[in-house]
Amino acid sequence: MPSIEKMRYAPVSARDSNDDDPLPAYADTHQRRLGRLLLRPLVPWILTALFASLSLFLAILIDRDSSDGLGSFAGGYATDFGPSKKHIHVSQHRFTGGASFDEDGMMFIPNTGETRFIGDPKVYPEIDYNWDNLTWGRYVLITKGEAIEAWGEEYATQEYWDKKRGGYLAGFDIFHTLHCLNHIRKSLNPSYYGTDHCIDYIRQFIMCLGDMTPVPTKYYPGLGSNYVESEMPHTCRNFDALRDWMVDRF
């Protein structure tokens, strides 16, 4: 493969001073002037073609996530429940709950967010309510047509019919995962017990999401090392809008 040095162009002055050039200097000047005159009317067309090509490229780039049949984060994936897609709204959201350290290296969480989800439930009794409220109504009735569209004909059978609710019952993964995380939270308290199912399910959910948001690390003198600064903006689907839609379906 030729090196970059070998591919370097010669200076213009070197080409102009070539003794083997059969044309006089004035002929070269005349040709350049004639070339500019011929090119000038074509400039608008060239620019139009350039911008059209750029617009087409951007349109293809934007639509790339949906053209492969998998859908997109903002518009809804192929595996998302169809009627929920119009309720998907995307925005940037700064995470809370990042750890900090005092001069003695003791960790504390300065910002727990507007609604408390962590801490000792004996000190903050509202924590259990806040968690339960996140996932209330997480199983909804869907029609036979919705069941077939979501899972296929084999699921539109009596085996998947809920006799108590009188229809096909469906849950949504975001709320199932939150439910599992709540069980893990409770397992940190001796009065509760977590399950391997929840731990492994959350692992799969995190790996499936594949969030590549970069997070920095911050040096804490009391700790003597860096620690992740997790309170960074993330691109998120609006949870409240999706939850409100689910509760309306309940």
Automatic annotation (TrEMBL):
The chain crosses the membrane at residues 42-62. It comes from the Eukaryota. Its main location: membrane. Keywords: Glycoprotein, Membrane, Transmembrane, Transmembrane helix, Virulence. GO terms for biological process: mycotoxin biosynthetic process. InterPro entries: UstYa-like. Belongs to the ustYa family. The keyword Membrane applies. It is found in: Membrane. This is Uncharacterized protein. It is a single-pass membrane protein. Pfam families: UstYa. Residues 1-26 are annotated as: Disordered.
